[in-house]
Design brief:
Blueprint (H helix, E strand, L loop, with lengths): L10 E7 L7 H11 L4 E7 L3 H11 L3 E4 L13 E2 L1 H6 L4 E5 L2 E5 L1 H11 L8 E5 L3 H12 L3 E5 L3 H11 L2 E3 L11 E4 L23 E4 L8 H8 L3 E3 L1 H17 L5 H12 L1
Parallel strand pairs: 1-2, 1-3, 4-6, 7-8, 7-10, 8-9, 10-11, 11-12
Antiparallel strand pairs: 3-5, 5-6
Helix pairs in contact: 1-9, 4-5, 4-8, 8-9
The structure holds NADP nicotinamide-adenine-dinucleotide phosphate.
NADP nicotinamide-adenine-dinucleotide phosphate binds next to helix 5 and helix 8.
């Protein structure tokens, strides 16, 4: 798989974030461009001054960008338009340069929903979200659109309450986990993420008769996923959300279907 030669007509896409050194996005997007023989290249930029960077997208005519921590909310101030769901979520992780107009999207939301819908039809299902941060917001709005019955539990109860009031759903503190019987449990906290791999947001005994989705993808199999599997639960790895959100970005920038299997295998190889 070799990249097209870089020429004067090569389209540039990039990821803007800080820190950015460990991003897997250049690896998977460049491989996907090469696989489809698209004359695109993808770079990572460590960005401190976001407004200046967005001016750079316009000035240098980048085709698209991925936006990551800590810029997903602020970037909305500098775009020409923000797609409806991203507006509700209040965060943008993808920008398309459409003939000079910068349009914001949120593929964290649709990426998580695609990963879930590979396993379960969400309408009417009881979905419990652990966490109420940025990723939880994105997933919660996607679940709402699909007609799931949502409960949000968070360490800081006030944050769960604020999100729940926007979604008109149930909420509470983490201590209330075991008073619910969800069809699907989604961990959106960073608990269990490398290097704190022994952390787990719920007791193993609770993990019975439910689909368990952990959005943490480093390690590939978190303690939550391992214990859910030991109890016979079906599971979804955070890797699936990561790959689906990246595939959706690729589709927004190129208008072509992303080579999902290739992207997945590269991430697995890198994180194994
Ligand atoms: P965030 O906005 O900072 O939210 C973090 C959440 O984790 C909050 O709800 C926070 O609770 C909770 N939390 C943190 N430490 C905790 C602890 N010790 N005990 C209990 N709760 C704790 O972060 P985010 O952007 O939503 O990201 C969260 C995780 O998702 C990260 O690990 C990130 O890598 C992962 N992620 C994965 C994907 C993917 O594609 N798979 C995409 C996005 C994010 P408080 O409100 O009480 O602080």
């Amino acid at each position: 798989m070799s990249h097209s030669p870089i020429t004067a007509s090569t389209a540039l896409c990039a990821i803007l974030g800080n820190p950015i050194e460990h991003s897997l996005s250049p690896l998977i997007h460049n491989a996907a461009f090469a696989h489809l023989k698209l004359n695109y290249v993808f770079l990572a930029f460590k960005v401190v001054h976001l407004q200046e960077a967005v001016k750079g997208i316009r000035a240098l005519n980048l085709k698209g960008v991925s936006v990551t921590i800590p810029h997903k909310v602020e970037v909305m101030d500098y775009l020409d338009d923000v797609e409806k769901v991203a507006q509700k979520i209040g965060a943008v992780n993808t920008v398309l340069n459409q003939e000079g107009r910068l349009i914001g999207h949120n593929t964290d939301c649709s990426g998580a929903i695609r990963a879930l819908e590979e396993k379960i039809a969400l309408k009417g299902k009881k979905a419990m979200l652990i966490g109420a941060g940025g990723a939880a917001r994105a997933i919660a709005f996607g679940l709402k659109e699909k007609g799931a019955d949502i409960t949000i539990l968070n360490r800081t109860v006030k944050k769960a309450e604020i999100l729940a009031s926007e979604l008109e759903c149930h909420y509470g503190g983490l201590a209330r986990v075991e008073s619910f019987t969800p069809d699907v449990l989604i961990n959106t906290t960073s608990l269990g993420m490398y290097p704190e791999v022994d952390d787990i947001p719920v007791r193993k005994e609770f993990l019975k008769d439910m689909l368990v989705f952990d959005i943490v993808y480093n390690p590939l199999k978190t303690r939550l996923i391992k214990e859910a599997e030991q109890n016979g639960c079906d599971t979804i790895l955070g890797l699936e959300m990561f790959v689906h959100q990246a595939a959706l970005q690729f589709e927004i920038w190129t208008g072509r279907e992303a080579p999902l299997e290739l992207m997945r295998s590269l991430v697995v190889e890198e994180l194994s």
